[in-house]
Design goal:
Blueprint: E1 7-10, H1 19-27, H2 34-49, E2 53-56, H3 59-68, E3 76-81, H4 89-100, E4 104-110, E5 128-132, E6 136-141, E7 148-150
Parallel strand pairs: 1-2, 3-4
Antiparallel strand pairs: 4-5, 5-6, 6-7
Helix pairs in contact: 3-4
């Protein structure tokens, strides 16, 4: 029995079954970061076993339609990492309003002050805040998954 469904949005989706796309992803790992190389290899292997559906779309126009495809009895979880810093503050506000209007759990991993309405806990050296529903900071984290510091 399939317990869950995964789907994503990207302006330019990559295909983990494509050797060219995997080589490109590997080029994005900085030299000397062996742990990241291992995590990427593990993620690629997992995604090749169970490829996620990734739709070509942007976060503002694609999310409502994608969310509408979720099974009615499922817990819809919207997750993103390091994306909102690349859109305008107005689009961040529109995205936050869109997600808050969905029957969803919203998990974000973004830089401090990037998610509208999410308080930034005082902590030196934390490039990312893991937040829930745009209101509750849960953890501070390294942007590349090296460490996580739970706040509660």
């Amino acid at each position: 029995m399939d317990c869950c469904r995964r789907a994503g949005l990207d302006l330019n989706p990559l295909d983990v079954t494509s050797d060219d796309d995997v080589r490109w992803l590997s080029c994005l790992v900085w030299p000397g970061e062996g742990d990241r190389e291992q995590r990427l290899a593990g993620a690629i292997a997992a995604a090749r076993r169970h490829p996620p559906v990734v739709h070509r779309s942007d976060l503002l126009t694609g999310l409502p339609a994608l969310a509408a495809q979720a099974p009615a009895d499922a817990t819809l979880v919207v997750y993103h990492s390091a994306v909102l810093a690349y859109v305008t503050p107005g689009d961040r506000e529109r995205f936050a309003a869109t997600v808050r209007a969905l029957p969803a759990v919203w998990l974000s991993s973004e830089g401090p002050g990037v998610v509208p309405g999410l308080p930034s806990p005082p902590y030196e050296g934390a490039p990312f805040v893991l937040g829930r529903d745009g209101h509750t900071p849960l953890a501070l984290a390294d942007g590349h998954g090296t460490w996580l510091h739970w706040l509660r």
